[in-house]
Amino acid sequence: MSIPIYRFGIFDNCEGLIHGLSMREGGVSEEAFGSLNLGLDVGDSDENVKKNFELFCGEMSADVDKLCVAFQQHTDNIVQIDKGAGFGSPYDAVDGFVTNVSGIPLMVRFADCQGVFLFDPVKLVIGAVHSGWRGNVKNIIGKAVSIMVSEYECSPDDVLAAVSPSLGPCCAEFTDPVSELPEQMHKYINGRNVDLWACAYDQLCDAGILDEHIEIARECTKCNNAKYFSYRGGNKKSGHMGGIIQLI
Ligand SMILES: [Zn+2]
Questions:
Q1: How far is the CA of 113 from the centre of ligand 1 (A)?
Q2: Which of 90, 109, 158, 198 has the least C-beta neighbours within 10 A?
Q3: From ligand 1's centre to the CA of 167, what distance in Å?
Q4: How far is the CA of 221 from the centre of ligand 1 (A)?
């Protein structure tokens, strides 16, 4: 069975880069986790999840034994990677990775949250970030870019950025967003809904990324729940998709 892969146009034709996102199809899990669930801690069987990782990594030509993956906890913790830990050794309480080492697949996982992928084709540095609304509040996106700049001498002008399918302004509904979100995010509120795509775009621009270097998928995971896992669309029981970025 072939595994459909979502690819960002902005990374097309980038030499030296592997990237791609899983969708729902192509795995062995069932029901709410059907079928390519990459969630480590969502209630699916360990055996099925391991098989799904092997299938997706195989399709991506990514080495599962060097894969960097984490138990993400909506932190702004970003780890600089120089050695791949492997699927069997997930990082704890980490929501982002940055590296300039080739051959190490960086993965973040998401169901309604944003997977944000960064690539500097000049300095050959990559980043992968998991950012839900709590990540937007902490601006983990801006933090990842600033690590690329301060630790890897990247120029933000060179960095390409892409944001995965995620909860759109149509479905990112809060109980009381004015009280739940800090003031700097109030401009994204419309009634009880929040435009987290616009927030991510602004955070990338504020970090110095050029407009023409930003791709926002603008596909809502909840509205497209047959194609993408959605925590909200799945009645709070859902698998996770994963996105990989790797220097060759
Ligand atoms: Zn929607």
A1: 12
A2: 198
A3: 6
A4: 7
| Global model pTM greater than 0.85 | yes
Domain containing residue 243: CATH number? 3.60.140.10
**Ordered per-residue pLDDT tens for the chain, 248 residues:** 689 999 999 999 899 999 999 999 999 999 999 999 999 889 999 999 999 999 999 999 999 999 999 999 999 999 999 999 999 999 999 999 999 999 999 999 999 999 999 999 999 999 999 999 999 999 999 999 999 999 999 999 999 999 999 999 999 999 999 999 999 999 999 999 999 999 999 999 999 999 999 999 999 999 999 999 999 998 778 999 999 999 99
Q: Quick one: tokens of 231?
A: 């925590």
Range of the domain at 107: 5-247
The Cα 17–Cα 53 span in angstroms is 20
225 CA distance to ligand 1 middle (Å): 9
Could you tell me the two tokens for 202? 């602004």
Instruction: Report the distance separating Cα 13 and Cα 236, nearest Å.
Output: 37
Query: Cα(4)–Cα(20) distance, rounded to whole angstroms?
Result: 10
228 CA distance to ligand 1 middle (Å)? 12
In the chain, the number of structural domains is 1
